[in-house]
Amino acid sequence: MDCIATKLIFLVTIWTVSSQDLTQEVTSSLLSLVAQESELRSRLEDEANLLEQKLAELTKQSNGATCACPSSFGPIAFSATLTSNLATLGRGQAIVYKQVDVNAGNAYDVRHGIFTAPIDGVYEFTTAVLNRPGISTGLEIVKNGISCTKVKSGDDSYYTMGTNAVALDLQAGDEVWVRHVNESDSQTINGEGYTTFSGYFIEGYEVVNNQALSG
């Protein structure tokens, strides 16, 4: 009987030791898995934060972006003609071209002879002036009252035609017109369909974070 009891005690001792070893192994494995899970969670959180930052940056750029596209506004162009002679021009007086042949976009104001840019972009303008013999007159294309280019026509013996063109970088609301130059020798301009003012939109901008990109 004592022998049997001794064997049982021995078996119980072995089972207890084995159970302790198994428990330690399981515990060690669980701790390793927990550490791996914690590291993976931290890595995923870092990546999520980075994605959120990139999304916020893209959203900010998108909210600050505007596109001035010809397809959105349609064609912008005008052509106007002086049909009658002007004989009493003042110095710096604006020339009002009252015959409007084309005014796509309605940016040219026939009442005052002023073109107002409807959108940001690059525009080209041309003016031509005819004078009869013995008269010399100068005109200039101005942007918001500042001279951009000039043209002069005149000869003692012949009719003369002067013309000039300029490309201008305009913001929406900028105004362009033609005026009599202060240093002009004459107050007279021949009209009769020869003296003209025209312009058209060339290319707009896409503006992102205050940086203009052609678009």
How would you sum up this structure, described in words?
The termini are far apart. By secondary structure, the chain is α+β, with helices and mostly antiparallel strands. A hairpin with a 2-residue loop joins strand 7 and strand 8. The protein contains two helices and 13 strands, in the order αβαββββββββββββ. Residues 207-215 have low confidence and may be disordered.
Summarize the structure.
This protein has 215 residues and is of the alpha+beta class.
Topology of this structure?
Layout: H1 2-63, E1 66-67, H2 70-73, E2 77-82, E3 99-104, E4 108-109, E5 114-116, E6 121-131, E7 135-143, E8 146-155, E9 160-170, E10 175-180, E11 195-203, E12 205-208, E13 211-214
Antiparallel strand pairs: 1-12, 2-3, 2-11, 4-5, 5-10, 6-9, 6-11, 7-8, 7-10, 12-13
